[in-house]
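Protein in question kept in full:
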Amino acid sequence: MFTLKGNQKVCQIGPFKVGGQFGENPPLLISSMFHNGDRILESRKDHKFDHAKAVEFLKQQEALSEQTGIPALVAMVASSTEEMKYYIDFFTEHSDLPFGIDMWVQKPRLEAMEYAASKGLLDRVLYNSITPWDKDIPDQVKALREMGVKHVVVQAFDENDQKSSGRLTSFEKLMEVVGQGGFQSILVDTAVMNLPATAFSCLGNKLIKEKHGWPAGVASSNGTFMWKEARELWGQNGFAGMDAAGQAISALLWSDFIFYGPISIAPRIFPAVVSASLFQATLAFEETKRLPENKNHPIYKFFGAFAGKLSDGEQVELEHGGIAQ
């Protein structure tokens, strides 16, 4: 029911493993910084932002990742090449971890990657993204291949078939060109349109993973944050609960990575995704009688005794009414 048919690829981005069989690795969490509305951003034109607060957010996410065993990187948003260069320099001054660039327009996105390549950073940069709406995908893939880019996001969406099947057909069409790029990591973003439609994206993840094996995930925050009426209905606490629940469910259902939104909300997202990862590992165990080989998985960090009883064969007692205390 949950475990997947076919061979599953595991991509390595810096120290992070992304993808694999259901329950094998916790999802990669990808936050955003310098997006429109980011409170630390003072002037996009002048590249001015609150450096101290930005560093605080970076270190907070890194600490949560270390504590939980859930890998995490930050994707920085910019509208121009010069702006992104400034953010890349800032990030690499304060962290040795992988990071992403998030730019909507193809030309400055490629120029930003050229800058990252010139700085010797391609092992740790995630290119976000190649989309069905890009004007010249073949030239984009050619440029990325010539730069030596290793890690890319491909966004899958079909305007004519907005259900899960459309994500698969869109990905396959894009891969006719993207597959020529020689990329080490291809992360498939099954585009989210709204909160309930996130279910189609998650089912699309399963279809893509079973047929092609590449890691697949969602920008679940697109669904939760676009539901603006939730704040009006239930206030900030109610919105935060809906957001954490929506993103945890997305993480549970075959998502190898999650674009979770502003880095400032990390304290609520990491615990939510820990819960999802624990469910994944246990559901996978029920079907396969195997626990994750990844010893940094949350199930070992937080429920080591429980995991030990399962691996020692005490699952028989569990099936007959619970593990003996």
